Amino acid sequence: MDMNDEKKSVNENSKNEQLEAFRSRDNEDKVMTTNQGLKISEDEFSLKAGERGPTLMEDFHFREKVTHFDHERIPERVVHARGFGAHGYFEVYESMKPYTKAKFLQDPNVKTPLFVRFSTVIGSRGSKETARDVRGFATKFYTEEGIYDLVCNNMPVFFMQDAIKFPDFVHANKPEPHNEIPQATASHDTFWDWISQNQESAHMVMWTMSDRALPRSFRMMEGFGVNTFRFVNEEGKGHFVKFHWKPVLGTHSLVLDEAEKIGGKDPDFNRRDLWENIEMGNYPEFELGVQIIEEKDEFAFDFDILDATKLWPEEDVPVRLIGKMTLNRNVDNFFAETEQVAFHPGNVVPGIDFSNDPLLQGRLFSYLDTQLIRLGGPNFHELPINRSVCPFHNNQRDGYGRQTINVGRVAHHRNALANNSPYPVSEKEGGYAHYQEKVEGHKIRARSDSFKDHFSQATLFWNSMSEPERQHIINAFSFEVGKVKTKEVKQRVVDMFANVNLELAKAFAINIGCTPPSTGSSTVTKSSPALSQENTPKKAYTRKVAILIADGFDFQQVTEIIAALQAEGAMPAIVSDRQGIINSSSNNQLEAKHSFITDSSVVFDAVYVDGGKNATPVFQMEACQFVKEAFMHYKPIIGTNEGKQWIEKEKLGGSLGVFLGPEENPDFVNQFVQGVASHRFWSRVII
Description:
By secondary structure, this protein is an alpha+beta fold. It contains 17 helices and 20 strands.
């Protein structure tokens, strides 16, 4: 070894010794402490004023834990990293004055500008958009009274009841730290280990294993405020409220095989769909709904209305539709708008206030704290996308990213040098005043007994599903838990969900090689039809239909069907074995902008195959594969001419949702268009 090699070896050893001092081998059999070494007596509950009271600021353990979690990623969002946004406006249908004094909910003639960001939750910015996941649905209203942020998910409940558990949940759900595998999926050991050890997650897991976790489009996705808020009117009377976004197009989903293939074909599938439809003028619309409970009825239900793992069944607490949001403009710059937008549930206006929901109480700290690290300091509100449309005046100064050039020497309150300005105003003059609620109780880390039922609403969800939806849930458990390597974790999950529904647990236990449970604890028979997508609105509007043609196609027949689809707002797209001009048998032409190389059936909602007299054997083979895949995904299919012959050759003719014509059925075009609106034919027999 020469001197250079020896010096290199010494340097490497020195560096390794230096790193070794920072290595923490493991936490097994160790007492939990704060980062300052203080032993912790409780890590399940945040510190509250009474079991159902608000979270206290003095909870240093909660603040340290969540602050550390909020600052774990630079600069990507810890969660909701993969998102896409659009601009729009909101109009209220009628004044909500009896319930709230919020001005943007008073006048139907006022359009309130807004910005919406849709997102996946667990994947990184580069992950696919069609992963099985919760979706974020956050809306920033630029009201005349200031910014109001309605931060929703596409599921009405959450994995936990108390925000102190959020870092643990996300750590368990993210790629495992020793090898950074897997990306954007719950199909691994640490996630299911956490689930099986935190059984309050049962209801949310049922939603995540359902079709709701695979939305067909952001435009066809519900939004839920999850937490319980308050409306407060001018007299100071409060009502508990939950918020809903209802898509005008209905709520629709992909099937798992479709979602996985789209992730490879087009990982930007959902954002591309939103962008293209807005560019074409197919503006997405969502109605804002509210569920309202009078304060006197706070304890009138068989669940705690402050429990974020519980929904308010719509049959018991109806959703009142109070306004509509229209998204009509794409962003000009993704980074400046979508990436820099900052939401916070604490951005409220007079007339909207908070409840003691312990998950919400934690969010009121966490969101603001997250923005401080992600956007570089306290002045993120001055970025154009976050800036209020009404003026703002206060004594905040300096900090990273300051854009306002404040003049004068006064930056304190109270003051005489500037006539005591800026100055607070009374509630009657528009000043925000928190809802006055009597709070009593011992300072305690605990949870109310009213939060202890973890399975009844999970069973309610199962009972509410159609048979196809139930089978999809069984398939999802079989896939996700089947990926788990630790047998003990798999068995704990099976045993846990026997408390939701015994047949469900037995079905996926067999599929993943576990011991099927013999008993379950659920006695719930109630169902909620509002929870099933089978009962959602169904329209052909903006549905994408693949038109498969080759040289020698029937121009009159094809253009007739295209016209019928377009009359209902569907979007036909010509697909062939090549891009470019395709010649018909009558010497007319259509342009194919899609080919079998660039697209497949999974990115379309329905398929029409006419074929062509001059179709090559390769075209026929590709077209048949295209149709068979659509058939397996329960999509509507129509065939004419050579296409009809190929469908019959594949023995698909006569199946539900497969339309052949015109000889067999003169009304086949109208029936197909209606089939496109139906979205899927779940009763189809798959051969």
